Amino acid sequence: MWRNLFIAFSLSFLLAGNACGRSLKVAVASNFQQAAQIISEAFAQQHGIAVDLIPGASGVLYTQIQQGAPYDVFLSADMAYPRALSDRQLASTPKIYAVGQLVLWTPRRQLVSQTQTTTLVIADPQLAPYGRAAHAIISNQDDPNLRIVRAHNINHAFKLIDSGHADGGYIALSQLSFAQALGNATSAIEDFTVIAAEHHPSLEQGATIVANSKQPKLAQKFLTFLLAPEQQAYLYRMGYAQQ
């Protein structure tokens, strides 16, 4: 009886909390989805504020915010999209919350000979900053045996490589770090090369509070939590560069 009463009270408390706006909608770049999930769970435990993550390519999320999507926070894979929103007064001045690292992952490279066509996958450069960074690399290559496939976003790129639909591709180092930690990759994670930052556009990732957020104070609390030393140290361990 007491257990049932406690459960009922807990549920009513949680429902009341959500009714009072104790939750946040966070639009998050695909490369940061797994890290955001871990950080959001820690944030919820510490502050009692649930975080609803909406992942996607940064360009898609940017367009949705322009069209009035009810997000509170935007975690982009670059600084350009948040700055564009800020310039139009659709979001706050962005802050760098992470610095991504681009890698070439070729788990099946031993199966590809020099006379065969090599298929590499990149995220769509029109929508994904990691895709733009990858495009800067491959645009300098003149290889008739190289075939480029564009994925919807960087998580899609990872799946195409891991499933064997591509010989390799350009993704985020953090994706491989999480795949190794979770053991959810079927391909050899060790077969990758980190691309030096000077060879591609910056992957500084920007966080901003959406102007039409109904709870900007909670949004600011989340950003403060994300930028705290403990979370930043965690991101460094999971494949993001040190700021």
What does this structure look like?
The protein is an alpha/beta fold. 41% of the residues lie in helices and 21% in strands. A five-stranded mixed sheet has the order 2-1-3-10-4, sandwiched between helices. It has a five-stranded mixed sheet with strand order 7-6-8-5-9. β1, α2 (33-47) and β2 form a beta-alpha-beta unit. The N and C termini lie far apart (53 Å). Mean pLDDT is 88; it is low at 1-20.
- The N- and C-terminal alpha carbons lie at a distance of 53 Å
Low-confidence stretches: 1-20
Share in β-strands: 15-25%
Strand order of the largest sheet: 2-1-3-10-4
- What is the helix fraction of residues, given as a range? 40-55%
Globular, elongated, flat, extended or rod-shaped: what is the shape?
Answer: globular
SSE string: HEHEHEHEEEHEHEHEEHH
Q: Compute the number of strand runs.
A: 10
Nearest-angstrom radius of gyration?
20 Å
The protein's oligomeric status is single chain
- Classify the secondary structure makeup into a structural class: alpha/beta
The number of distinct helices, counting runs of at least 4 residues, comes to: 9
Largest sheet: 5 strands, mixed
The averaged pLDDT comes out at 88
